[in-house]
Design a protein that fits this description.
The complex is a heterodimer of chains A (about 375) and B (about 300). Helices cover about 45% and strands about 0% of the residues of chain A. In chain A, α1 packs across α2 and α6 packs across α7. Chain A is elongated and about 120 Å long. By secondary structure, chain A is mostly helical. Chain A is built from 19 helices and 2 strands. Chain B is mainly α and about 300 residues long. Chain B has 14 helices and 2 strands; from the N terminus they run αααβαααααααααβαα. Chain B has a two-stranded antiparallel ribbon with strand order 1-2. The chains are: A mainly alpha (about 375), B mainly alpha (about 300).
């Protein structure tokens, strides 16, 4: 990127240095003098001014580069019009002209207020340079609001940033795994507030565990759908798939000491069975653990803390009281730690096995006798 | 039947001959000579043959039909005379309540026990989802509880019920019978053990249903009214109920499908099943074969026929 400016700069300098030199040495002289001049200019420039002379933004930045450049709109709002130059230079779009995006600016100074930037000019569906998600975006709850011309609807630049668009991997990107929660929180404030308190939020933002989930881990990136849409990743029947991505991942469970067997025990419970058969009413993970303010059992704010459990269960179960806390919720019927439950299971196992073995032996002996007496071979009972 | 046919034929032949002979004097009076008389007699015989040639089949059919009907009636009377009312109407109604509820409960319950099996998903989609399944399972449960209530009342207030309950109590003889049966299976004993009104097989079935009923109805009610149950009991009681319900269900299903179905449907002397559950009767032969002691008792008139 910066290399790009340098070439242009060299060209400019060369033009300044050009004077008629004829002969074979003309090229060499030109190169040497150019080089000397360039070095001189570079040495003369303050370090901070790198890129200052970028002709790409130069014209626009004459006005927009001034800090505090703003305009009072007819509706009384103040429109910030300052553009941070360094932001532009470090963005992924640093090679572009201002008018590549602000395509409706035809003259400088422009008289009209430019419209919203339309990213689909470049990032259309079949563009090999990426932007495949554009299609997904228009199916999402955000994209649908955009097509309905909702003034509050988020456009690409609302999440990805306007002048400071960065690659997702870059820590400067607004949609980086670490930053995306803040970006979503700009509109979804209550959810953000809950998230940053939750175990997921503290793990990611405070303890910098990169495997910890952020908004997009559960809600999806571009194809964000409402919870009542059956295709949504957080539709009641799909919530378990979202959670099991990490909570059934043995590597993560071992690495971060996450309690294991949560998904399998849920699937064994009646809640899990009903969920398996498509009941939307039944409790899924987020019904008890909450969607955003997910906290460990030990935390007194947690919905699954023993003190709050009766209230949490009481959302569905009338008369829920302290009895709900006596006994495990995620019951592993085959674990010895369950005490009486384990022995009852074992008792029935032994009872079933032994009873059926004896009955089966009785049947086989009966058939054996009947065969010997010829009853099975087409003779009557007395073997005649 | 051949005899009857022959006798009828002969009777008709006799009658016709008699007619020919009776009318002979008249014809003689008309002045017919001996030659003519013989001719007339031959004609009569020929007519008889011709008559039979035409009518023989129909007569045969009619006689056959009437006779078959009579045999059937005789047989029925004979069968009725020699059958024994083993189960009264209350007993049969109880059995029908039990098997219909158990069939409903097994069909609707097993998909919950094995939620990951494709058959379960198919069954659940046929039933129309888990909420319908829940309603159907509870209908089955009500029927089953109704059966247990009916049976308890029957055992207390009905004379046959009281007698059957006493007869169903396990006795030392049952253990002897089991050993005798094992000997019989291996050919060390020539005869099967002599059973009274209920063999040890039937006693096992009865007490299995008794035990199963207590477990299933008890745990089922805890799960049905879990909100009430959990306001009195801690949650692990619910978990125990669920575990017991699920395990006992499997045990009961397997016992019914393997053991009971073998004893009443798939064993060679019963296949494909009898109608005793419908009319409750056993023939004399069946009584002697399966419940000789009871039969003897009935013959002695100690108990008399119970119907």
């Amino acid at each position: 990127m910066t290399g790009c400016y340098r070439t242009r700069k060299m060209k400019t300098n060369r033009r300044v240095a050009a004077h008629p030199v004829s002969g074979k040495k003309a090229g060499t002289v030109l190169a040497i003098s150019g080089w000397i001049l360039l070095s001189a200019v570079m040495a003369a420039l303050p370090v901070k001014a790198w890129g200052q002379a970028s002709p790409l933004y130069q014209k626009c930045l004459l006005c927009h580069g001034r800090p505090g450049f703003k305009k009072l709109m007819p509706d009384g709002k103040v429109l910030e019009l300052f553009v941070n130059k360094s932001e532009l230079e470090h963005s992924i779009h640093s090679k572009l002209h201002c008018t590549d995006c602000h395509a409706d600016v035809m003259e400088i100074p422009h008289l009209k207020v430019p419209g919203k930037v339309n990213c689909y000019r470049c990032h259309y569906k079949d563009n090999p340079n990426g932007a495949k998600p554009a299609n997904e975006f228009f199916q999402s709850v955000h994209g649908k609001l955009v097509t309905e011309n909702d003034p509050k609807a988020p456009h690409c630049q609302d999440c990805h940033g306007g002048h400071n668009v960065q690659k997702v991997d870059s820590p400067l990107s607004t949609v980086n795994h670490q930053n995306v929660a803040y970006t979503c929180g700009k509109c979804h404030k209550p959810q953000y507030d809950n998230y940053i308190q939750s175990i997921h939020g503290t793990a990611l933002l405070d303890r910098h565990i990169k495997s910890a989930p952020t908004c997009t881990t559960c809600h999806g990136k571009h194809l964000i759908l409402q919870p009542d849409n059956p295709e949504s990743s957080i539709y009641p029947l799909n919530v378990i798939n979202v959670c099991s991505k990490c909570h059934e991942n043995k590597e993560l469970i071992r690495k971060y000491n996450i309690p294991g067997g949560r998904i399998s025990t849920y699937k064994e419970s009646y809640h899990g069975v009903a969920d398996e058969f498509g009941s939307v009413r039944v409790a899924n993970c987020s019904s008890c653990h909450r969607a955003h303010l997910i906290l460990p059992e030990s935390d007194p704010r947690s919905s699954i803390n023993k003190a709050n459990l009766a209230k949490t269960c009481g959302k569905c179960h009338q008369n829920a009281n302290v009895n709900f806390t006596k006994g495990k919720i995620h019951v592993n019927y085959k674990s010895k730690s369950n005490g009486i439950l384990y022995y009852i299971g074992m008792f029935f196992e032994i009872l079933t096995m032994s009873t059926l073995t004896l009955l089966f032996i009785h049947i086989l002996l009966d058939l054996f006798r009947r065969y010997r007496s010829g009853e099975i071979r087409g003779k009557n009972k007395r073997g005649e | 039947m051949e005899d009857k046919y022959k006798t009828t034929k002969e009777k008709i032949a006799e009658e016709l001959q008699k007619y020919a002979l009776d009318t002979l004097p008249e014809r003689e009076e008309k002045g017919l000579d001996e030659k003519t008389q013989r001719l007339v007699r031959d004609e009569a015989n020929e007519g008889l043959d011709a008559f039979f040639n035409v009518k023989i089949k129909n007569i045969h059919k009619i006689i056959k039909k009437q006779h078959a009907l009579k045999i059937k009636l005789d047989k029925k009377q004979e069968w009725q005379k020699d059958t024994y009312q083993r189960f009264n109407i209350y007993f049969r109604i109880q059995h029908m309540m039990l098997f219909s509820s158990v069939i409903i409960l097994i069909i609707t319950g097993l998909p919950i026990k094995f939620p990951n099996s494709p058959i379960s998903k198919f069954m659940m989609s046929i039933m129309g989802g888990i909420s319908t399944q829940g309603i159907l399972h509870r209908i089955g449960a009500v029927l089953l509880i109704g059966f247990y209530v009916f049976h308890t009342l029957y055992t207390i207030f009905n004379r046959d019920g009281r007698r059957d309950f006493v007869q169903l109590l396990p006795k030392p003889k049952d253990i002897k019978d089991i050993f005798q049966m094992i000997k019989y299976f291996f050919g060390f004993a020539k005869d099967k053990p002599k059973f009274d009104r209920f063999s040890y097989i039937e006693k096992f079935d009865y007490w299995a249903v008794y035990w199963g009923g207590i477990v299933m109805v008890g745990s089922g009610l805890i799960m049905w009214f879990h909100n009430i149950a959990l306001s009195y009991f801690p949650k692990y009681v619910y978990d125990i109920a669920r575990e017991a319900h699920s395990d006992e269900a499997l045990l009961a299903t397997l016992t019914i499908v393997i053991w009971h179905f073998y004893n009443v449907h798939f064993n060679p002397s019963r296949f494909p099943g009898s109608l005793v559950w419908w009319h409750g009767k056993l023939t004399k032969e069946q009584m002697i074969d399966e419940h000789p002691l009871e039969y003897e008792r009935i013959l002695k008139g100690k108990e008399g026929k119970n119907d």
